[in-house]
Amino acid sequence: MMPTVFSRRQSIAQLLKTVVAASMGTLLSGAAKAQVDKLTITGLSEARLRTFEEMVRPFVQNQELKKENVSLSLPMLADNGHMVPLSLKIDSPMTEAEHITHVYLISQRNPVPLMSKFVMGPWNGRADLSTRVRLSGNQSVIALARRSDGNFIYDVQEVVVTEAACVDNG
Amino acid sequence: MTSARLQMPPRITQGDVFKIRLLVNHPMDSGFLRDIDGVLIQRNVIRHLLCTLNGKEVFRVEPTTGVSANPFIEFYLRATESGTCCFAGLTTKPISASCVTA
């Protein structure tokens, strides 16, 4: 009997993967669309997805930006957008000479792009964080960290949100 | 009423890097939602959460509306000296503070 159960479980997993992949597809096409109608920027429009540049440029300015040493983990499929567990591991020695000074969590679709800002220093010993965030729909989330030398590192993670944290007034 | 709970290891030796878990009871009203009568719920979010060790700032969080109600934050701290680890919060409503001894 055991193999039957296993194969059924496998097929369910496969189905779930397909569903997630399909939603990711719509997410990507949404991002592409956002590139096109760049001019329709309104503070509260829920549907609009920000571009990567719009998300990071206000923080990074003209400093160097690299995708390294940060690992952001979010559930691939979040059931409830009101409370999405988010954890972040940053590979940094956290010494006086080299440490992380700021961490920013940036959302692509939320009405307020910056979800949270953390200020830390060498006295933290380890630059790992975890928290719970609100997400209004399928989107990418960026974790941006500022190093003590002024340069930035980041990681991006895509997340599918089944029930968005609603924005009635949007 | 805003209150905060803090969890950390019972015994910490000097030089250890230990984990602090902070849970704040706060609605974090985003100001985008309406109540059952259609009246806009005023924005009420935590603006700052400051962790100090013997008066020195060691960690600061500045959440916006993107953080869930009852914010939960987990972070690390290096034990350099024994003392009082204190949390103070500033919200859009009057200031609240809570203090825990390490």
Distance between the ends of chain A: 52 Å
Query: Helicity level of chain A, as a percent range?
Result: 25-40%
Mean pLDDT of chain A: 79
User: Which outline of chain A best applies?
Assistant: globular
| Number of DSSP helical runs of chain B | 0
The greatest interface here is: A-B, 39 and 31 residues
Annotation, overall tally of beta strands of chain A: 9
CATH C-level class of chain A is Mainly Beta
- What fold name goes in the CATH topology slot of chain A? Immunoglobulin-like
Number of domains of chain A: 1
Are there runs of chain B of 5+ residues with pLDDT below 50, and where? 94-102
Query: For this structure, what is the CATH class of chain B?
Result: Mainly Beta
End-to-end CA span of chain B: 24 Å
Compressed to H and E, one letter per element, the order of chain A equals HHEEEEEEEEE
- Give the tally of structural domains of chain B: 1
- Which percent bin holds the helix content of chain B? under 10%
Structure notes:
The complex is a heterodimer of chains A (170) and B (102). By secondary structure, chain A is an alpha+beta fold. Chain A has a single domain (2-163), classed as SoxY domain (Immunoglobulin-like), CATH 2.60.40.2470. Chain A has 2 helices and 9 strands; from the N terminus they run ααβββββββββ. In chain A, the strands form 2 sheets. In chain A, strands 1, 3, 5, 6, 8 and 9 form a 6-stranded mixed beta sheet that branches. In chain A, a hairpin with a 6-residue loop joins β5 (100-107) and β6. The longest helix of chain A is centred in the first third of the chain and has 35 residues, at 2-36. Chain B has 102 residues and is an all-beta fold. Chain B has a single domain, classed as Immunoglobulins (Immunoglobulin-like), CATH 2.60.40.10. Chains A and B meet through β6 and β7 of A and β4 and β5 of B. β7 (127-133) of chain A pairs antiparallel with β5 of chain B.
